[in-house]
User: Which sequence fits this backbone?
């Protein structure tokens, strides 16, 4: 853990926090990584960074051991991200985060009611968004990897990738 944190700190001293977290999401593979990013993001004010804070709560819920603790972090992340999206409805990046999580969450959690809505916001807004081209590609490629992406969604995503 200490080596991981040291490596991240040394390799990204001059990289802005948003770029740092974008570069590592969704490849968070441990509780320690999720906690590192939670700590990094806890005092950030921008809506996008707050959305990644919510994402790290989801990631933390994935790696903690006890079921009640898992559920507590899931609920906190869900509530936080849903409120951010409510306040920033056209934000493509926030919709992308929720799309990824809602497709990956177990069905018994019932967190899957916004998948189509988020997909539409992403596909209609990504070309016009001010996100850089490289990150748009990364988002779309990550969307292709989610567990429950449909064949129709896959086709639309691939068409967008070719357009960008």
Assistant:
């Amino acid at each position: 853990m200490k080596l991981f944190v040291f490596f991240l700190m040394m390799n990204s001293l001059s990289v802005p926090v948003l770029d740092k977290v974008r570069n590592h999401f969704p490849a968070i593979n441990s509780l320690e990584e999720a906690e590192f990013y939670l700590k990094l993001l806890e005092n950030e004010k921008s809506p996008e960074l707050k959305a990644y804070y919510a994402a790290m709560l989801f990631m933390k819920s994935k790696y903690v051991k006890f079921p009640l603790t898992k559920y507590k972090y899931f609920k906190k992340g869900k509530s936080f991200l849903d409120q951010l999206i409510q306040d920033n409805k056209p934000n493509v990046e926030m919709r992308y985060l929720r799309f990824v999580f809602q497709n990956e969450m177990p069905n018994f959690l019932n967190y899957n009611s916004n998948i189509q809505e988020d997909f539409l916001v992403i596909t209609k807004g990504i070309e016009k968004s001010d996100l850089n081209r490289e990150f748009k590609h990364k988002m779309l490629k990550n969307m292709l990897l989610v567990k429950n992406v449909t064949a129709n969604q896959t086709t639309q995503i691939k068409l967008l990738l070719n357009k960008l």
Summary: The chain has two domains: 1-70, 89-164. Residues 89-164 form one domain. Confidence is low (pLDDT under 50) at residues 5-13. The radius of gyration is 16 Å.
